[in-house]
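Dear Dr. H.,

I hope your travels went smoothly. While you were away I took the liberty of generating a structure for the chain from your last submission, since the lab meeting agenda had it listed for discussion. I wanted you to have the full record in hand beforehand rather than looking at slides cold. The sequence, exactly as received, is reproduced here:
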Amino acid sequence: MSKLPLNPALKGLPVYQPGRPIDEVAREFGLPAADIIKLASNENPLGPSPKALAAMGEVLSRLHLYPDGSAFHLKNRLAAGLALRPENVILGNGSNEIIEFVGHALMRPGAEIVVSQFCFAIYPLIARMMGASVVTVPARDYGHDLEAMRRAITPSTTVVFVANPNNPTGTLASREALLALVESVPPEVLLVVDEAYIEFLEEPLDLLPWIRSGARPNLLIMRTFSKIHGLAGLRLGYGIGSTELVEALEKVRQPFNINALVQAAALAALDDTDHVHQTRDTNRAGLEYLTRECLELGLTVVPSAANFLMVEVGDGQKVFLELQRRGVITRPMGGYEMPRHIRISVGTQAENRRCIEALREVMAKA
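The corresponding predicted structure, in token form, is as follows:
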């Protein structure tokens, strides 16, 4: 047995389980990889922005050089689009790294974070890794009970996490409730609003004025290039906050955390408005189709504002496995304490139809 003095916070810490990759399922079930569709990880079914692909090609001959450690051009471009200063933006290797920055800066033994039941798994995982305690507030209709989350704040609370829309449930908080939370969180508590899916909303609530005015230096907004821009494989997220907060988070950021390919691709993706509009249209139509077909199958769905749908299917793990046997990868929700549900990412029209055909077959035998 190892006698290494491991961090005691690691004891009992779960390992995050992502959606299963296509090759792994192909090996397990003896299926051709080309015949498998993955609707498990809320990825963009249209693929990466074509402009991003072209931009990466132009960088390949320079990969022997270190990337710009401050990502000057990308930061400036993002800031200009947000009507903020580059000093208001911090870049991460996916939004997950931004969450880890928050952990290093504000979580420690004796501190508490407040999250909602059915929250993104990484929030409590990072907190426990840092030795902080997690206060989980019961959900309301699978979404955040923001009023109750505000009441759960104590003198030990350092961070409150709110994902809007929420992953994995797809729920959207009301504008009134979210604004009330922003206005009422104590100044010594950081409110992190995770907006990974904000681009899929028709009329998103704009929280940026709170940062532009400097009125809420304890507000951090997180966004990502993984979803709407189709760059999940490159891992790029960013945080938006006060210059003081970003300066603190920069102190725990690893050098060169955003590589040269990512920087080039992200800059080009910001110019590819056609890809963004097409993605949004594809998602809207796909979400409507999946919702309608699941309801016709007699299944209960959680209304979604994101690019996925959570569906109650009875034995979620069994249905997940049976769909895999038919070459359709979804996400079981047992790890989120919802064993009766699976989560289906919106795919292309053909992928959505194939998923429903497989689900119809599985449910008929249930």
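Two observations you may find useful: The chain has a mean pLDDT of 96. The chain has two domains: 19-47+274-365, 50-271.

With kind regards,
E. W.
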